[in-house]
Amino acid sequence: MTTDIRELLDHGREFRAAGDPSSAARFLAQAAELAPADRTVLTELALAHFHSAALGRAEGVLRELVDLDPSDGYARLLLGRTLSRRSRHAEALPQLRLAAALTRDPDVLAELARVEQRVTTDRVAPPPSP
Questions:
Q1: Could you give phi then psi for residue 6, rounded to 5 degrees?
Q2: Of 20, 32, 43, 52, whose CB neighbour count within 10 A is largest?
Q3: Which helix (H) or strand (E) holds 47?
Q4: pLDDT in tens, the chain (130 residues)
């Protein structure tokens, strides 16, 4: 990692830690342009997009991360959470199931159960009235 990428990454982390994910995303997007396959940079960028509610951008970065490393349980968890937050619960389930299998983390299992419940609720909910 060059100094420029490291500096951009550090600035992005500082802004994200300070509660300014939009500014963080600007620095991290620049770092990602310089190092498009750097999983650390992409993970930080995805988090910045997620926390700033730029969910389409977060999804795109997370799909890149999953393509780079299909066994990255954290990327799959974030992708599942992003899809769920976009009300695409059925699409989130496979990602969350893989994340749960890869990480065996109780918090991931809880997230999976929450989304599974949501999918069940979505299926039995009556259609919206006109």
A1: -60, -45
A2: 32
A3: helix 39-51
A4: 556 999 999 999 999 999 999 999 999 999 999 999 999 999 999 999 999 999 999 999 999 999 999 999 999 999 999 999 999 999 999 999 999 999 999 999 999 999 999 988 877 656 666 6
Residue at token pair 């989304």: 115
Closest by Cα among 10, 92, 98, 90 to 58:
92
| Alpha-carbon gap, residue 76 to 94, rounded angstroms | 9
**To 5 degrees, how large is the angle CA 116–CA 90–CA 74?**
75
DSSP string, 64-130: HHHHH-TT-HHHHHHHHHHHHHTT-HHHHHHHHHHHHHHH--HHHHHHHHHHHHHHHHHHHSPPPP-
Q: What are the Cα distances from residue 115, in Å, to 16, 26, 90, 123?
A: 26, 31, 8, 12
State the pTM of this model: 0.88
